[in-house]
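Quick note —
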Amino acid sequence: MSKKVVITADSPVDIYSELAERYDIHIIPMYVNLNDKSYRDGVDITPDDIFNNYEENGTLPTTSAIPIPDYEDFFTSFINDGAEVVHFSLSSGISATHNNAKLAAEDMEGVYVVDSQHLSSSIALQVIKACEMRDEGKNAAEIASAVADLADKTCTSFVLEKLEYMKKGGRCSATAALGANILGIRPCIEMHGGTLDVAKKYRGKISMVRRQYVSDQLEAHKDNLDLDRIFLCTSGIPQEEIDDLCNLIKETAPFKEVLITRAGCTISVHCGPGCMGILFMTK
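Predicted structure written out below.
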């Protein structure tokens, strides 16, 4: 008799609770360090807490990788229950979480750690595929092997409204941020090979930039889209704009599901408010 398979992920999976319950996904939080205290992403602190603190005090938190003992306790709780685990980590190219998870699991039989090579709801896309394989009866080893090529089929990108948070967090220079703000540049960031880079620079009103970005991304992959689902993830934009962008997505490509999610603390610390991305897969 095969063992139960548990699918787990780091908190930057950015999946809302109802969807996590629907697919029985278990999440381990990263840490957010603010005002000399450490908080668990999505448990003890929210993105709005971060944004409000910045507005009031001008300080931004830092984020910390999940430590090895946390992973050991997390994985052991499932192993002791007679299950096997397939865990999806934040990209090893931008965080130590993957390496820590691997170290925690190296002496544990039945724990498979997958480097998503992505972030945010792009990880969720891979996780959901793994859950579907689990529900089809595949064991943990089979799932871990089957998902190995999903990173190359996952499309991660987002548009920033402002570079202020990236500048504060040391992700771009003050000069670059100032120049972008003066010129009204809205950079599109894409993920390739597990790391982030600027792919395109938009200009103009942010609501129009977001629409153009969505059209550009879907047009670029129009002949090879996996139409099962797409995520629209934001760090907080007006609901009427979310509705408009959802309609644009549906008019452009016949996805079976358009899933709306809010970026968690780990992503929001670096991207700030007003960030928006669409995350999808190709065939």
